[in-house]
Amino acid sequence: MIVFIACESSGVVREAYRRRGHVAYSCDLLPADDVTTFHLEMDWREGLAEVERLHGHVDVIIGHPPCTALAVSGNRWYAGTQEREDAIAFVAEMAETFDAHARYGWAIENPVGVLSTRWRRATQYVQPWQFGHGETKRTGFWLGGALQPLTPTNVVDGREQRVWRMGPSADRWKERSKTFEGIAEAMASQWTNGQLGYSDPVCWSNCWDAQVSFIGEDGEEHVIDIRHEHGIDGVVADAGLTFLEEMRALDVFDRYHEGCGHTD
Q1: Least confident stretch, 83-87, 91-95, 172-176, 183-187
Q2: Angle (nearest 5°) at CA 246 between 45 and 189
Q3: Is 235 exposed, middle or buried (0-12, 13-18, 19+ CB in 10 A)?
Q4: pTM of the entire structure?
Q5: Regarding the domain delimited by 2-190, which CATH topology (the fold level of the hierarchy) does it fall under?
Q6: What are the extents of the domains in the chain?
Q7: Quick one: DSSP state of residue 235?
Q8: How many CB atoms lie under 10 A from the CB of residue 16?
């Protein structure tokens, strides 16, 4: 599955999906906190277009728009300001774009703020203590497409307000906005093609005489012949493709085999 995470530099959600075998990209104007080739340092609109160019589609899109001017904690400084109006318009544009491009569904995450009253009511609110972290930080999700509200995975004791009690620092805003790993794991395990009612491929090596056609990084069409004795993994590995081209070829083959009928 192809996943795009907008406005994320931490890589927490991206890596939760990648650990499950999905092709996931984070995108932000800031560089990634980790060392990875799956982070696009650019505007999220450009990043989404780039992922679609490489893979032909995006299945799930998740957005973490900046919350500074939207959160209730910022009312003292942003109530009635143009900055807040611009922030609301930013989220509305993000949702409209996600809805037009996500093949399966999309989500926008933000802490408690003005979005539910000024834009639309959140689909659900979650707390870290519902996903293995003994802390409080009420966070809203606005969902579209086939995505359903997250189900708590590990309710624990503890209601520490660690995030709100962080001392002043240059990275305080960044640490406060980082997704809790337990919530990211729930997203990656529940917002996937299998959970959303879409079938995973049932065959990777028992079909033959298939041709996989995809657009390479050079902008040209490439065709790989698949033979039964090699299987898709061996053929792609020996084709001299770049890493991104391998991902594209495997994804095309993945979609080719949906409904192919093989079960062994």
Answers
A1: 172-176
A2: 65
A3: middle
A4: 0.72
A5: Rossmann fold (3.40.50)
A6: 2-190, 210-256
A7: H
A8: 23
